[in-house]
Amino acid sequence: MNNDIRCLSTEDIEINCSPSFQKKNHSNFWKSLHRIWENLVKKLLSNPNELQVWQKVDRQGNIYWQAYDPVTGKSFSSGSQTDVCMWIEQLYRY
Fold first, then answer.
1. Could you tell me the sign of the dihedral formed by the alpha carbons of 63, 64, 65, 66, in that order?
2. What is the C-alpha separation between 23 and 27, in angstroms, rounded?
3. Contact in structure between 41 and 33 (CB atoms under 8 Å)
4. Hey, is 24 helix, strand or coil?
5. From CA 5, how far away is CA 68, in angstroms rounded?
6. Span 11-18, mean pLDDT?
7. What is the C-alpha to C-alpha distance for residues 76 and 9, in angstroms, rounded to an integer?
8. Are 83 and 64 in contact (CB under 8 A)?
């Protein structure tokens, strides 16, 4: 029994990707990397005790708002920006 192991050279490997597929993946990679970088910078520059409010999109494409107060540990979410503003006002009213 012969157990020969050999490595494939680049000539032995065929890459069957169209140029548009390669360009699309390259573009998605840089977009993802840019998004990660932006989130990292936001985290580093943010005040950990500051009220946080952000907009999200669920699986059905519905847009909703979330708010979190790290000082009290309370959070709130709603499909209405007005509701979130009212929650913030009530939170700091007292």
1. negative
2. 6
3. no
4. helix
5. 57
6. 50
7. 57
8. no
Alpha-carbon span 26 to 91, nearest angstrom: 45
Q: Fill in the DSSP letter of residue 9.
A: P
The C-alpha atoms of residue 64 and residue 76 are separated, in whole angstroms, by 11
pLDDT, tens only, 34-67? 999 998 888 888 788 889 899 999 999 999 999 9
- The pair of structure tokens assigned to 46 is 């943010």
Q: Torsion-angle region of residue 65: left (phi > 0), alpha (psi -120 to 50) or beta?
A: beta
Question: Residue 49 corresponds to which tokens in the numbers above?
Answer: 């005790």
Name residue, tokens 């840019």. Answer: 34
Answer for the pair 74, 55: CB distance below 8 angstroms, yes or no: no
Q: Which two tokens stand for residue 67?
A: 């708010």
Q: What is the pLDDT of residue 46?
A: 77
pTM beyond 0.70, yes or no: no
Helices (H), the chain: 19-45, 81-93
